[in-house]
Amino acid sequence: MSRSTKTPLDHPDRLSRRTVSRRTAIQAGTVGLLGLGIDHLQEIRAAAAPVGTARKGYASATSCIYIFLSGGLSQHDSFDMKSDAPDMIRGEFNPISTSTPGIQICEHLPLLAQRSHLWALCRSLTHPRNDHSEGHMIMLTGRTELPRGFSSGGARPSDWPSMAAIAGDVIVPRNNLPPAVVLPEKLVHRTGRVIPGQLAGEMGWRRDPWLIEASPFCSTAYGAYPEYEFHHADDKLDESRVFAAPRLALPQGVDPQRLGGRLELLADLDRQRRRLEEHAAIQSLERYRQRAISLVTESKVRSAMDVTTADDRIQDRYGRNSFGRSLLMARRLVEAGVNLVQVNLGNNEAWDTHGNAFPHLKDNLFPPTDRAVSALLDDLHERGLLDQTLIVMAGEFGRTPKLSTLTKLYQGPGRDHWGASQTVFFAGGGVQGGNVIGSTDKIGAYPDSNPQRPENMAATIYRALGIPATGVWRDELDRPHTIYHGRPIEGLV
């Protein structure tokens, strides 16, 4: 599969609405003949009239990898350390110098420190919410205001659409792969509820982002399994998780010969339909059907996801764990033509370090993250893809300045939820390396200069993907909905 050189801006007609019609039902039925159900093809939907016009040259990047640290990374213990603050604020870790004079980060992120010329930090992102579900909604959708009827109890049809859902809807596919992908698992709370903010919400379930699930849900094990698996309260792990590439194969009983026969049948149905509806615009829907076929027939698509069989040197470089393999898969998918890849580094709010924060960060969370993100930067740079690929790393919020100890659950101290301040990591996509945007006060509690909102982060991502500031998505009633709710962060590019 060759990588197209076209960007979303080369296809201004892609910013359009989609509605369900009788023609959609006919096509959905033909997909059933392949043995592929609608559950496997959530992106199947009809295309309608184009709206909006994109401007060429609007952004240098064409792809984005959004690394989401579910649970909330502590800014004090990573990228915004306050070494002169009192002990109950500064914590146990020490800062180290990076390759950029004047920028220091945590001593347990040495590989990233060596590569500061490739990345930038925004230390002043802020929003008003301290609840996990609210924070997920805000940071996965890029909208600070919560939707009407929002519930922390789970995802709802009235939720704002995620950035991945919007990108998947308005960006023209470069090939038969979807424009947006989420991996390696859906974000699920330990109680089993689906965390809101990650789906299509009011766009409708047919426009949910395409999900690659590489491991079954587990309510007790956290971190970069299997190498860095842990339990927050140091309880015994009930099970060990295994990272496995999703099985992309023909349905049982459908061999390649039978598939060929079914494709011939589809071609015959197409001829009949064309005679009945010769004036119908079906090109877009045909692309979705071909995408479904490619997922089970093209070796390049399968190899992009089957990272567990990658060369030993590459696996060692990224790390033989869920963090490393997820980012390796993200790099392969970007190279194969996917525009936005959201990588959930940490199941079940793994970065929620209320207690035992320092050993869990030092021993379980920072080592695989430092290695995998550094490998991703090097790999993209060596392949000439870093300038074309924006990398963003954030959680749903930061952590409280003051340490606390919940003695009934944890032996050691930690930090609680804190939406008022967090650091967001940026690299690639034209980002000026060795750069810091904004600052926080002496204890890292609130922005002290150049405050930024989640809307600004989302606009930065949308701009990198080539989505124009005037772009909209349209609902089933043909009503336009604004994509941008803020301006891109100034000074990054």
Number of helices: 12
Beta-strand content estimate: 5-15%
CATH class category: Alpha Beta
**Which residue ranges are poorly predicted, with pLDDT under 50 across at least 5 consecutive positions?**
1-59, 248-255
Number of domains as seen in the coordinates = 1
Order of helical and strand elements: HEHEEHEHHEEEEHHHHHEHEEEEEEEHEE
Within CATH, the superfamily carries the name Alkaline Phosphatase, subunit A
Radius of gyration from the CA trace?
22 Å
Summarize the structure.
By secondary structure, the chain is α/β, with parallel strands linked by helices.
Task: Describe the protein in words.
By secondary structure, the chain is an alpha/beta fold. The chain has a single domain, classed as 3-Layer(aba) Sandwich (Alkaline Phosphatase, subunit A). The protein is 28% helix and 14% strand. The protein contains twelve helices and 18 strands. The chain has an eight-stranded mixed β-sheet, sandwiched between helices. A two-stranded antiparallel sheet has the order 2-3. A hairpin with a 5-residue loop joins β17 (472-474) and β18. α8 (299-305) packs antiparallel against α10. The longest helix is centred in the last third of the chain and has 26 residues, at 357-382. It is globular.
Detail the topology: elements first, then pairings:
Layout: H1 22-33, E1 63-69, H2 87-90, E2 95-97, E3 104-106, H3 110-113, E4 119-125, H4 132-141, H5 163-170, E5 180-183, E6 210-211, E7 222-224, E8 228-230, H6 256-276, H7 283-297, H8 299-305, H9 312-318, H10 322-336, E9 340-344, H11 357-382, E10 389-395, E11 398-399, E12 417-418, E13 422-427, E14 435-437, E15 439-440, E16 447-449, H12 454-464, E17 472-474, E18 480-482
Parallel strand pairs: 1-9, 1-10, 4-14, 5-6, 5-9
Antiparallel strand pairs: 2-3, 4-13, 7-8, 10-13, 11-12, 15-16, 17-18
Helix pairs in contact: 8-10, 10-11
